[in-house]
Design brief:
138 residues, TATA-Binding Protein, six-stranded antiparallel sheet
Length: 138
């Protein structure tokens, strides 16, 4: 009998802005809300990074906003949590802002966030260069 393999490689569905800041997560979420006119709110559960056995490796604070008019989701997730990294190859990044609308001007959003006083810098992350993003599920 012939074996058929179904490969559903959808890839990572978000554009990502890396944020470097010493702000705590709730304060950063508030500043992003003011700057980008979003409504990020703390998720009931943190993002849990697990290994292949399902064991929890780390827990990262998570904020979400949904724009139903534009059909866009925004997710703010902390990269560094108790010495553990969500995306290990980007250890200099403190937070990631994920946007699932490829029509959004991610460069302009990044520039607006740089104007926030306590944000040292932002960078648009090329998720294709960092394979850790393929392992993240939001």
């Amino acid at each position: 009998m012939k074996k058929i393999v179904l490969d559903l490689d959808e890839g990572f569905e978000y554009e990502v802005i890396g944020i470097c800041t010493s702000m705590v997560d709730y304060r950063l979420a508030w500043e992003i809300n003011q700057s980008l006119h979003l409504k990020l709110a703390r998720s009931d559960e943190d993002y849990l990074k697990t290994n292949k056995k399902g064991e929890i490796l780390s827990s990262h604070s998570l904020y979400e906003a949904v724009d139903d008019d534009q059909n866009t989701d925004y997710i703010l997730v902390k990269n560094k949590s108790k010495g553990k990294l969500l995306v290990g190859e980007l250890e200099m990044i403190d937070f990631f802002l994920l946007v699932n609308d490829f029509r959004a001007d991610i460069q302009e959003m990044s520039v607006k966030l740089r104007s926030v006083e306590m944000i040292q810098t932002t960078v648009v992350v090329d998720v294709d260069e960092h394979k850790s993003f393929d392992q993240l599920v939001f």
